[in-house]
């Protein structure tokens, strides 16, 4: 159902379904909730869902629009999570490290 939402002419009226899916511990539902229909999520909710993906091991490749929506606040959240992981002697998932690096390393334009 979640994967079909962007194909339906419904606007944002099914966002509560995404909220329910994101609150679960079922990684399949969390991943499906962050497909194309997630464009209707408020930015703060979307960031929390991305962080939940990192925490639960959902590959960030499933997050539709990640390069466009990722922002400084998501970078701050990922950096704090990375610090917690480091303090616990655990690695950060590689895809999350890549996103954090892209958000925090200044690009140079030629």
Commentary on this structure:
The protein is globular. The mean pLDDT is 94. Helix 3 packs parallel to helix 5 and helix 5 packs across helix 6. It contains 6 helices and no strands. Helix content is 55%, strand content 0%. The chain has one domain. The protein starts with 14 loop residues before the first helix and ends in a 6-residue tail after the last helix. It is mostly helical and 110 residues long.
Number of helices: 6
Radius of gyration: 15 Å
For the biggest sheet, the summary is: none
Percentage of residues in helical conformation: 55-70%
What is the terminal separation in angstroms?
45 Å
Order of helices and strands: HHHHHH
Overall geometric form: globular
**How many structural domains can be distinguished in the coordinates?**
1
Name the beta content range. Answer: under 5%
The count of β-strands is 0
Instruction: Quote the average pLDDT.
Output: 94
Classify the secondary structure makeup into a structural class: mainly alpha
Q: What ranges have pLDDT less than 50 throughout 5 or more consecutive residues?
A: none
Compact overview of the structure:
With 110 residues, the chain is mainly alpha-helical. It has helices spanning 15-23, 27-33, 43-56, 66-69, 72-87, 94-104.
Keywords:
110 residues, mainly alpha, 0% strand
Compile the SSE list and pairings.
Elements: H1 15-23, H2 27-33, H3 43-56, H4 66-69, H5 72-87, H6 94-104
